[in-house]
């Protein structure tokens, strides 16, 4: 896609961070924008901001961990605008900590928020785009954590590797069909977002409860680490432009931090050479 004016963009997780920047960039390019999130207060702020700039906006309170709500997102998008051309499967969360210490609820929380939500978006929106038979694009927001591993957040790596693999395989399928749908997977490094505060927006089914883990040293250490790496990350103001440039150029992999490229390459090299993962790499 190179012509965005009057086309329709759907952005999940649009109330904060990367999603908000993608919605802003879509509006800047003259698109009609559908914004979806569970954060009602900030979603309304984004809606007002975009409408003040003359953008046609549909704002929906949607929990992307529920398949029927993603269906609702698509249904109301089509009812309002008639078509959809650009989908950002962006909504996501972070859960740090040792996986054997995490409550099963937290594993479900990150799996459903980061991976199932992308599956649902693809499953619901691809048939609509295929039926339209016009140029469309899907961007699945993963992370550089889907291209390399570290000891910090195993569940986050798990879901983001899943994002990358899912996107690659679906992209092959669409190519094989001769589809007009293009795909990208966005794999940023640390960016200054509000992701470390995602626990404040947990829905009832994932609500932090009386489990002793949530008062443990490991839980608080994970929160502190997440806050540090996010607050010291790349400024967010150029992210929307970078992603849209990737869409225009039909880049499947959209990256933000070149300094991680050697680490990604080293991981692949070690696999091919039969070398084992070595914690000493992270101690240097």
Low-confidence stretches: none
CATH architecture term: 3-Layer(aba) Sandwich
Q: What is the tally of helical segments? A: 9
Strand content: 5-15%
Q: Would you tell me the overall average pLDDT?
A: 94
| Side-by-side strand order of the widest sheet | 3-2-1-4-5-6-7
Number of domains: 1
CATH superfamily, called what? Answer: NAD(P)-binding Rossmann-like Domain
* H-E order: EHEHEHEHEHEHHEHH
In whole angstroms, how far apart are the ends? Answer: 43 Å
CATH topology label: Rossmann fold
Shape: globular
User: Helix/strand-derived class?
Assistant: alpha/beta
DSSP strand tally: 7
In CATH's first tier, which class applies?
Answer: Alpha Beta
Describe what is shown at a glance.
Keywords: Oxidoreductase. The protein has nine helices and seven strands.
């Amino acid at each position: 896609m190179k012509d965005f004016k009057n086309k329709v963009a759907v952005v999940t997780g649009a109330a904060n961070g990367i999603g908000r920047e993608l919605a802003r960039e879509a509006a800047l390019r003259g698109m009609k924008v559908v914004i979806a999130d569970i954060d009602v207060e900030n979603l309304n702020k984004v809606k007002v901001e975009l409408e003040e700039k003359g953008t046609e906006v549909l704002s929906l309170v949607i929990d992307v961990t529920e398949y029927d709500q993603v269906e609702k997102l698509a249904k109301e998008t089509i009812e309002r605008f008639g078509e959809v051309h650009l989908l950002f499967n962006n909504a996501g969360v972070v859960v740090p900590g040792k996986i054997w210490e995490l409550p099963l609820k937290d594993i479900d929380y990150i799996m459903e928020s980061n991976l199932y939500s992308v599956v649902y978006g693809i499953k619901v929106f691809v048939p609509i785009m295929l039926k339209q038979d016009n140029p469309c694009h899907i961007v699945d927001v993963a992370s550089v954590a889907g291209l390399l591993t570290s000891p910090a957040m195993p569940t986050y790596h798990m879901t983001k590797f899943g994002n990358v693999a899912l996107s690659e395989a679906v992209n092959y399928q669409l190519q094989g069909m001769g589809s007009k749908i293009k795909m990208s997977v966005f794999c940023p490094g640390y960016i200054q977002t509000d992701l470390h505060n995602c626990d404040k927006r947990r829905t009832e089914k994932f609500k932090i409860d009386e489990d002793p883990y949530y008062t443990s040293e490991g839980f608080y250490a994970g929160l502190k680490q997440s806050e540090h790496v996010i607050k010291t990350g790349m400024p967010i103001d150029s992210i929307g432009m970078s992603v849209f440039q990737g869409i225009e150029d039909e880049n499947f992999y959209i990256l933000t931090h070149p300094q991680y490229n050697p680490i990604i390459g080293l991981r692949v090299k070690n696999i091919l050479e039969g070398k084992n993962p070595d914690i000493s790499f992270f101690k240097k």
